[in-house]
From TrEMBL:
GO molecular function: DNA binding
Sorted UniProt keywords: DNA recombination, DNA-binding
Tyr recombinase domain mapped to chain residues: 721-909
Protein known as: Integrase
Species for this entry: Dictyobacter kobayashii
Disordered: annotated segments: 574-607
Gene Ontology biological process: DNA integration; DNA recombination
InterPro entries per record: CB, DNA_brk_join_enz, Integrase-like_cat_sf, Integrase_cat-core, Integrase_catalytic, Integrase_recombinase_N, RNaseH-like_sf, RNaseH_sf
Amino acid sequence: MGGRLCLQTRRELLQQLAPQYRQAASAQKRKMFDEFTRITGYHRKYAMWLLNHTEEGQPSPARPRPRQYEGTVQEALVQVWNAANRIAAKRLMPFLPTLVEALEQHGHLHLSEADRSRLLTMSAATADRLLRAHRRRSFSGLSTTRPGPLLKQQIPIRTFQQWNETQPGFLEADLVAHAGADSKGSFLYTLTLTDIATGWTECLPLLSKCQDVVLDALHQARERFPFPILGLDADNGGEFMNELLLSYCEQEQITFTRGRPTLKNDQCFVEQKNGAIVRQVVGYGRLVGMLAYQQLGEVYRALHLYVNCFQPSMKLQEKHIDGKKVHLVYDQARTPLQRLVRAKVLSDASAQELMQMFRAIDPVLLFDQVKELQQALFFHTKGTLGGSAETEECSLRRFCVERCLSGSQEANAFLSALFSEQREPVHEQSPLASLLDWPRTCHDPFHDVWDLIASWVCTSPERNCGEMFRELQRLFPERFRPAHLRTLQRGVRKVRARLQGACGGQGKGEKMEAGGLHPSISVRPETAGCGSDRPVHVINVSPSQKHVSKQLVPSRCLGEEGIKGMQRTALSGEGLDTTASDQKHLQDDQLSQGFERRTGSSQKGLSRSIEHAIQDYLQAQKKSGRRPKTLEWHQTALRLLQEYLSSECQYVLIHQITEAEIQNWLTFLRERPTARGMYRSTGTVASYARSARAFFRWLVRHRSMRQTPFAQLDMPREEPGLLHLVEPAEWERLLLACRSAGGMVAGVADQTSACNQALLWVLAQTGMRTSEVCELQLSDVDRDHGVMRIRGKGSRARWVPLGEEGRYHLSVYLDRYRLPPGHDLKRMRVGEEPLFLSREGCSLTRNSIALLFGRLRKRAGITRKEVGPVLLRDTFAVRYLQAGGDLRTLRQQLGQEESAAVKRYLDMV
């Protein structure tokens, strides 16, 4: 009953009872006290304190303060926070005036003077509290760092305490592996370089982590940084600890240091950027292939501007340790561009032109393009249901600087500086010959198959050297010995290094100079995004920007003739020119992109991926208070829908789903057996359909879809079957089976028999669920009034009466076996113990109750497997209605929130 009384009712009861309690005798006080604790549900100590103190001495309930930041202020905070890529509030608030001014300048934010003043005076703690509901949980990745050679003894160690550089140019370097959940095979990497003084960060994609590839990427990074590189600090991996990089640093007069092994804090600056930039944007999926490499490079070209111009960060200034307390003092949050200008290492003209570029770029448009490139990269992620496993089905979406400009005077000046120089012409080479131009010995065992190996590296970069070597042994029996594997590994490493240089050449020269970006940056999209129905091509590995013909893809051949034919096709360059129809498709894609930029927010959801939409929906359901079992069921249904759309229809976007696909999915669920070889029932299919329908309705409400595909669809319905209740003869046999527990000592058998009979009567006379039986405690039994307290879903408590037989068997079990002598249910330690125990003396579980009914059915000779707690609950409901009970009381008795779950019992009355 305590759960039914509200606070006001309990306060009124206390006001009436407290004066009488203080004036009553001891015996009367005891009765009044027991009745007061039973009705209110208060703890005995707390109830005694309330009755013995006057109303003036009792604390008043705390009332929350009225909210100060509502409406437009909170919406503006979320909009600015999203434009800043959801950074921490302590980094956001110092940069807020600059960012609000930029958003207002480009027309994305409109605030009154009062709202702007309240937004700019908001504290970081308040902003964190208001943004708490919008944050998400992050994941972790795999480590692929391997120890380097003994050469690292020649490289000095530099710890995190020795980083006191104030001059820009001293960098920390690290690699991030895009391996997904499996670190085997070949996959892409990211080289992250972070300047210590300014926080300027550059990210470059790598096809592998061999020495030549890392050195070539370092060449590209030197061209991107707006200041010279003076020092380089790396971890102890073999990609950095090698003679090649050491000699290069000595030749270029770059200070080369390393951190201590297994201590990531020595590279704390770049490790933070790995999580805040690379993992947050790219994620933890597996990236494989040339097209994924090029798309990752386009993402980093956009982040080159966004991170360094619009992402503020704080630097630790002082650290004081006072016993167990650590006091950290940070400086004001600034962007890397602001720190670079304040460092005064650039000339006044260069600094002024960099600020002109900063004012010309619209941060919202730039961030929107980052999200588009991130979505395009998602299609190249392998090992996820939303990602595409075949990279040749998607085209390359390029970063376009022109789309980030607002058309203001600063933007026009920026464009004029951008086109002030012309890109130098690129000399075309043969697609595969340029990858094989290294000196080889006359005894090279692979002299006539390097073209084939190079084509495998280009078209199937995920294949490792072991797989390629076994394939060559199969194609050329008795030609290659196991000792030749090392030669193949060295050659493949050279091919990948030249492939990295050839493809990385298109991004060289992307650095911030006078007038902004170097003119090598593409200002118009070359191809449209994924999802087009027309045929698309894979970008070639050569710098000529031509398309590779699908004839260059054969990874499995039947003999030497097929290999020679493939080599002639690869070296001749046939089929590498684009046709007029491809140019027409390119123009159509550019027009469609321009249309998408002009459309409103209602069109943004049309390119939303199915996997991201499902994750957002489940997150919203979790925030709304759905129970874990409900969320698990929704997740199972939507996972089956996503798997069907991905495998059977090759759909990854929301707008591709129609009513026909949903109808085919429901048919697929009915006709296709599960992993256990069983077919799904009509009720299961109907429940999956209801979960999917709720998901699409949520998408329509959030304007991610125009219309739900379930609008004109007939939902599958399960024909309600007749309930076969527990017959009186079966009930008597169950009770007799409780008494015939053989194979046990007499005392234990009597205790088990009493417990089982009490459990059966409680289930039959209350209709409670199995989970509710497992949560029963000794304090939930009110023997004086013959009622029991049941904790239902959501910790809702209800009181249900027990019949005469139930009270009798429960009292026998409690008095003879359950309660120790001289103890009662009102003692706190006794009352918190479970009511029913198993034969081993442990708390009952759902599994133990199921096993108990299995044993009882076997002893009683009952063949119906349905006889159990659920059938006893149905029998109780039907008998209650047959005795003249109403549906509303039955709903309260069973703890059901929906009336539809109870109405089905009317057919049996």
